Amino acid sequence: SQQGEEDPQALSIQEGENATMNCSYKTSINNLQWYRQNSGRGLVHLILIRSNEREKHSGRLRVTLDTSKKSSSLLITASRAADTASYFCATDTGGGNKLTFGTGTQLKVEL
Amino acid sequence: EAQVTQNPRYLITVTGKKLTVTCSQNMNHEYMSWYRQDPGLGLRQIYYSMNVEVTDKGDVPEGYKVSRKEKRNFPLILESPSPNQTSLYFCASRATGTQPQHFGDGTRLSIL
Description:
The complex is a heterodimer.
Chain A: E1 5-7, E2 10-14, E3 19-24, E4 31-37, E5 43-50, E6 55-58, E7 61-66, E8 71-76, E9 85-92, E10 99-101, E11 105-110
Parallel strand pairs in A: 2-11
Antiparallel strand pairs in A: 1-3, 3-8, 4-5, 4-9, 6-7, 7-8, 9-10, 9-11
Chain B: E1 4-7, E2 10-13, E3 19-25, E4 31-38, E5 42-51, E6 54-57, E7 65-66, E8 76-78, E9 87-94, E10 102-103, E11 107-111
Parallel strand pairs in B: 2-11
Antiparallel strand pairs in B: 1-3, 3-8, 4-5, 4-9, 5-6, 7-8, 9-10, 9-11
């Protein structure tokens, strides 16, 4: 079963705008990770936030985590055409054995 | 360069013909996993391994086998492929259980 569910499924914005994607999950986690996938390619790790953290930044990326609501958001500021990709959240529920991915958000950034 | 290498990248084959997808990582990672990606279903874990000779089932292990005889290699074996195994497959590795995963570029399998 899917642990993470992203929302929206698809998002289209203009270059320079901010993009926000949300992820909800069902069970307690050790950490939550965000990945990017360019069309037909492997996933690339973007950022990891631990369960005791509430916010994390990396360049133009900002991730928040609300464990009480079992949700996370990924904000990409000042988006670029090169940010066009699918974005996935993945939850690590502990033990290191399993990372469960959501179904992803397809982001399109138009010039 | 740190990488996870999968081969082949593309394969079209027929039902019942055994095939192996190889995966190799050069980062000395202990953890390795196989995923399949299907439209609308995201990535689903097939099998994972926490170290040499230690493997376990993920969410969708039926029809697949794996082995981990060396730390760097984690092949995925389809003994008798069927059309419902047509998918995009990814191998991934990570150093420890709490580190991010490094993914290969994927293998697109078509089973006719």
